[in-house]
Write a structure and sequence with these properties.
Blueprint lengths: L2 H22 L8 E8 L10 E2 L13 E2 L2 H13 L4 E5 L9 H4 L4 H10 L3 E3 L9 H9 L4 E2 L2 E2 L21 E3 L3 E3 L10 E6 L2 E9 L3 H4 L8 E3 L2 H14 L4 E7 L28 H6 L6 E6 L5 E4 L4 E6 L2 E6 L4 E2 L5 E2 L1 E4 L5 E9 L6 E10 L15 H18 L2 E5 L14 H14 L9 E4 L18 E4 H7 L5 E8 H9 L15 E2 L3 E6 L8 E6 L2 E2 L6 E2 L4 E5 L2 E2 L5 E7 H4 L12 E8 H12 L19 E4 L1
């Protein structure tokens, strides 16, 4: 072969190789294509099944399947991802915080480790992500052991789901929060959005924390942070995203609503278009109503409700025991009046939202949104096909269960009857009264505060209280049961309030008084009795208030002094007289809008709330002692009277 022939041959070979290589590259699609978005919210560290759940309220309780559990959540996500290689898994906040003991005892590292294996990529920051402050949130994002002075917290870095024992890898997904700004730097605490490219088309996911977070978490957890308006923040980002060539925009927002229409609630329903019973916009509806038309989809959370306000929405009505499903166009109107799909997937890993986005490769925009809420059914009876738990995730759950079981299963006391966190007409909860008494007992000794009364915020009495469906009573309460009702790890604070401040505190339970935005009836300890007029004007509702010094450390409790009337006929008798009262650290810092408490004098810190509850039951109501029985006259329940 001559040199010239060799050159020609080499050129032909190189050209053929180049053509073959180019042909092997996948050309960008010219036709619209689908991307699968898998969403859920409010996981709250529920590594284990939260129980049973129905696709709608027509399903009898006994027929609702067991749902959730991290190993099944992972299996369902994997199944959905297998249907389309173009996929992304996202969340709408509260993946940590207010968690069961199996996650909370280990500082929610188990929650993060299971979410990593489930395959989450982006998650909005919820209010509970701030329970322990921004520094702890950053640790959970970036990894590393939780410090304890110059050492490491003994329950941190167990490493069951991390790269090695004694380590914590941190979140492999990205927490997003576009509207939370550090006052010192003017920058967002965490990235405002994340993007993922599908066959050349970028999709943006904007993370949004509910603006009201400072009013519902411990104020020290959000000190130095500003929470901006959700809709304004999204709208300000739209030009930035479009400048990058991004037209497909999904908002992950930790705010929501609930179905309130005349139809039966269905996980794929949008009853009442999420409006309130009075016809007003829900929180999520008010946000969507102000969104730029560029937003294609909103995945929401916070309310623990399941709804599907999208083109595939159905209304469910029941007549004579028969459910009728009627499809209709749905969505919540944006500022241009266009209906925007809005979804939410209940809570605790019970439901996943399966969303198909149809993208136009030429305009890079979303052409269609098809959403379906699917139960994470551990039996998968709905489709009559077996689904196997993810073995890797199951090993993580089993590992932490083995570590936590000895503590969780220890019996601390016995109760004679269920003590739910459901309130009566006056706002009093059986579980709330018990907790208030426990906090009073923990701070009643002079050296520990000298408290004469305790007040507990209703939102801190977590579901289901100490009420166990199908259980026989008397019931032996375990540490795990107690932790479920008191999972926040707040410490007790005893402070001095004047009689006028005590009345103002009780007035501040009602919307419209001293900046309060919602009605929040405080749970009160033994010895406190008061009445309020529901129809009276704000700041004028408390009619009578009596305080009887009571020793709650003995069984049954004993009055140690004569009743003292602080308020008679709405008038404070001795406004300057002082009293030592106990609240938790969340309330003491003005949480839930109870700003009166920030003016308390001589505050003294105390035990953790869970420790107080455990000590109260263990010290007075553990066998061979008689069970705790709230019907005993000495407990003086009910303690609150609601008047017209």
């Amino acid at each position: 072969m001559t040199f010239l022939a060799f050159v020609r041959f080499s050129t032909l070979v190189a050209t053929a190789v180049l053509v073959a290589a180019c042909a092997s590259l996948k050309a960008p699609p010219q036709q619209p294509f689908k991307v699968k978005v898998i969403g859920f919210n409010d996981y709250h560290g529920n590594l284990q099944s939260p129980g049973t759940f129905g696709a709608n309220t027509t399903i009898a309780v006994a027929q609702r399947p067991p749902v959730g559990g991290a190993e099944y959540l992972a299996a369902y996500v994997a199944r959905l991802k297998s249907q389309n290689p173009l996929n992304v898994v996202v969340g709408a906040g509260d993946f940590i915080g207010a968690s069961p003991l199996i996650s909370a005892l280990f500082f929610d590292e188990p929650a993060v480790e299971t979410l990593n294996r489930i395959g989450v990529e982006f998650n909005a920051v919820g209010n509970h992500e701030f329970d322990k402050g921004p520094a702890e949130l950053r640790r959970l994002q970036n990894g590393g052991c939780k410090p304890a002075g110059n050492a490491v917290e003994p329950n941190s870095c167990k490493g069951v789901g991390s790269s090695a024992p004694g380590s914590f890898d941190g979140a492999k997904f990205r927490w997003l929060s576009a509207n939370v700004v550090e006052e010192a730097t003017g920058r967002t605490l965490l990235p405002p959005y994340g993007t993922k490219t599908f066959d050349g088309v970028k999709v943006a996911f904007i993370g949004m924390t509910l603006r009201a977070t400072p009013s519902i978490v411990t104020p020290t957890g959000v000190a130095g942070l500003t929470f901006k308006d959700e809709a304004d923040t999204v709208n300000e980002l739209v030009p930035q995203l479009r400048a990058q060539g991004i037209e497909a925009i999904v908002v992950l927002v930790h705010q929501g609503g609930s179905q309130s229409g005349p139809n039966v609630g269905d996980i794929n329903g949008c009853d009442g278009d999420l409006k309130t019973a009075a016809g007003a916009d829900s929180e999520i509806g008010a946000i969507v109503k102000r969104l730029d038309n560029a937003v294609d989809l909103v995945i929401s959370g916070h309310t623990h409700a399941a709804y599907n306000c999208s083109a595939s929405t159905v209304d469910v009505a029941v007549a004579n025991g028969v459910a009728t499903r009627t499809p209709r166009a749905a969505g919540l109107p944006n500022r241009d009046g266009r209906l925007v799909p809005v979804t939410s997937a209940s809570a605790f890993g019970r439901v996943l939202t399966d969303i198909d986005l149809t993208l136009d490769p030429l305009t890079r925009d979303v052409l269609k949104v098809e959403a379906t809420n699917r139960l994470v059914d551990r039996t998968d009876a709905a489709i009559n096909a077996a689904i196997a738990a993810d073995p890797t995730v199951k090993n993580i759950v089993d590992g932490y269960d083995a570590l936590v079981s000895p503590l969780a299963n220890a019996v601390i006391g016995t109760i004679a009857a269920p003590l739910p966190n459901a309130a009566n007409a006056a706002g009093e909860m059986p579980a709330g009264s018990l907790i208030a008494d426990a906090q009073l007992q923990a701070t009643q000794p002079a050296a520990l505060g000298g408290a004469v009364a305790a007040f507990m915020n209703p939102g801190g009495v977590r579901n289901p209280g100490l009420a166990f469906a199908g259980a026989a009573y008397p019931y032996d309460v375990t540490y795990g049961n107690a932790f479920t009702v008191q999972p926040f790890g707040n410490s007790l604070v005893t402070m001095t309030l004047t009689a006028q401040q005590v009345k103002s505190l009780l007035e501040q339970q009602f919307a419209g008084c001293l900046g309060q935005t919602h009605q929040r009836i405080l749970q009160v300890s033994n010895g406190v009795r008061y009445s309020y007029s529901a129809g009276a004007a704000p700041c004028s509702k408390i009619i009578d208030l009596t305080l009887t010094p009571t020793d709650v450390s003995v069984v049954p409790p004993v009055a140690t002094g004569a009743p003292e009337n602080l308020v008679i006929g709405g008038v404070v008798r001795n406004p300057g007289r002082t009293y030592r009262v106990t609240v938790n650290s969340f309330l003491a810092a003005g949480g839930d809008g109870f700003t009166v408490l920030t003016g308390g004098a001589n505050p003294l810190g105390g035990a953790q709330d869970i420790d107080a509850l455990v000590a109260y039951l263990r010290g007075g109501y553990k066998a061979p002692a008689a069970p705790y029985d709230q019907t005993l006259p000495a407990l003086k329940v009910p303690r609150i009277t609601r008047l017209p």
